[in-house]
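STRUCTURE REQUEST FORM
Protein name: 1,3-beta-glucanosyltransferase
Source organism: Rhizodiscina lignyota
Requested output: structure tokens
Priority: standard
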Amino acid sequence: MKTAAAIVVGSLAAAASALSPVTVKGNAFFAGSKRFYVRGVDYQPGGDAAGKDPIADVTGCKRDVAEFKKLGINTVRVYTVDNTANHDECMSMLADAGIYLALDVNNKAYSINRAEPKQSYNDVYLQSVFATIDAFQKYDNTLLFFSGNEVINDNTTTGAAPYVKATTRDMRQYIGSRNYRKIPVGYSAADVEENRYEMATYMNCGTADERSDFFAFNDYSWCDPSSYTQSGWNAKVAQYGNYSIPLFLSEYGCIKGVRKFEEVAALYGPQMTPVYSGGLVYEYSQEASNYGLVEVSGDSSSVKERPDFDALQSALEKTPAPSGDGGYKSSGEPSTCPPQSDTWDVSNDDLPAIPSPALKYMQDGAGKGPGLTGPGSQDAGVESSGTATAGSGAVTATSSHSGAAGILAPDFSMAPFACALVLLASTFLGAATML
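Status: completed
Returned output:
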């Protein structure tokens, strides 16, 4: 017999599944048969320095969801969550308000270090990433996962790109191997003009098991007063015109004087919807960077709406989500991988293989995550030391310290017979070291 508490928790989880899950079709998102545009804000009260999980803060959720409804948004992006916390109540409140979650799986302690990407791409890191997927895959209003945010932030850090792409691949395989709903996985790129397009094409090139489900980038080039052409947005639409996976702005809202959010009309207008799927305004709460839509009171019980809040609310009201399919492309070819250059230091298309100790998570699950108080991963675990076999839905493991090599990670979305062959091969190649 279920206890009253269990019934309440079950009801909350069911409520968080009231929205239609979002899927990818061609270069667009769809909720059921209706095209879905990201119309939201970036949401991290306290900022990155605080390192808190806003989706575990029920009081804060009640306060802020009311503001989200006033804005008329359908998505919030959260940069930090605790993968050991309970998120049922906040996710239910968001779902009841018609709001999806775009979630970063990394935090300060568990992430790819752009200065030491090979060392920081290890099994301890992936365990935390996979545990975060476990915590949020059950909610239908989990819109997507970001595998990284601004890891490449100039011309000297592009060498980290293969590790970002490998993490994206591993997340997609973990979702498939665990038989979860196919939640889209992709990357959020920095506002770096010199290599942003290279990163976009890199994340969309290669075989089906290597490519991302979407690509997003932060764009602060439209500074009011401006226009579609003055901002250069027209040139970007032309540049990405043949891009074949969903593309959206993971941060936008330049501050140079007063923000009127005039770019909203362009972003959801007929010139951009064939290529873009909306965007997220930076940011909800006022932090040191001065981009806030609201100020959270000292006792955290209420908020004060700033002029930017009114401006965004008005802009969204004047520009509703487009009807129809927005001219999306139903199919498309992969991008061509970018050549090595002065601004792109990736010499070939090979990806790092998954660290062999992480292979067990594909079959057994990640287990309990480290939360936000764990010792961190950047100098821990077995790092990658090989390249992956692409195209079969499986990834080849790196050597562990005990010497095992060449272990295949089964993709449980394959046909049962093929999957059985991979599992059998894994046994003979040293699968015991995975356990």
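Reviewer notes: Residues 4-9, 396-435 have pLDDT under 50 and may be disordered. The chain has one domain: 4-318.
Form closed.
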